[in-house]
Amino acid sequence: MGSVVALIPARGGSKGVPGKNIKSLNGKPLIAFTIEASLRSKLINRTIVSTDRDDIAQISLDFGAEVPFIRPKELAGDAVLDFPVVKHAIDYLNEHENYDVNIIVFLRPTSPIRKHGEIDAVVTMLNENISADCVRTTRPVIYPPYWMKKINNIGYLEPYHSHINPYVFTRRQDLPKVVMCDGSVEAARVDSIIKYGEFPPGKKLAYYRDNVPFIDIDTPEEWEFCEYYMQKNKRVI
Questions:
Q1: What is the pTM of this model?
Q2: What distance in Å separates the CA atoms of residue 178 and residue 194, rounded to the nearest whole number?
């Protein structure tokens, strides 16, 4: 299988919830939930946090992650995409440690609700499907995209994706099945990341999950809901 590295991106410049990666959520720093989920994995060899902040780095170390580098400031801005962050980690490990990574598992700390075993299930799916470049966790959409609208330049609603919408009067259960990628777990082959110059790369398989709510913490309201969910479901580890 080769080396499997979990990469946890945790920059310090959050605006919606300032300092959220190390802010206490239900008794421990937000990032700790993702670090601990990675450390429980049977298939991940190293758990690495990519951050531009010394305080995030120290708390990550305290909870058992590795922080072999501090992310350059130019890779920590609001507009920076995932690919350069992933590529920086791959290059650093190769150049400074002579460590080759075969699979990167991207674990966003803003999605702390992961069921036990999901990380290993995603990695296993990738290993068992040699033609796939990547596996992403997915879930049902909240509202069918076929029924979504946009507001035109004179203020009227019209179909979002087309002026000809064959599904406008279709029952929900008869609509084509669609999912959304929820950002909880994304595993990709490093060769594919380099080949396509993107993350997540190439041909993507879906790992379907509908047993937990969609939580991606960007606002105080989402933070409060996550904390409520954890307390209600006794999610303290």
A1: 0.91
A2: 29
